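## retry 2 of 3
previous attempt timed out at serialization; input unchanged, resubmitting
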Amino acid sequence: MGRRRTNQGESLKRIYFNPRHTGSCDSVDRLRRAANTPGNDTRRWLREQDTYTIHKPVRYRFKRHRVFVGGQHQQWQAEQIQRRDNLSTYRDRRVF
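## retry succeeded, writing output
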């Protein structure tokens, strides 16, 4: 098993770092198809490579608050109410 993984690593290395090859510096799927290796092994090998992990874009997932709106213009009304409260401090507490 260790010998097979070493051979896979060598073939992945040969393909990934050769700019003339179709699977070089591309997606996991293209590299997997070019090297004819399983997807999990290809992902695991790519995670070990600095060139892949450094240039991979970071994806942030922020927690979002869900807003449920019952009708078409209810969301606008809620925003206006909130603004009214915030702006009243600048208008000597007058609310229009």
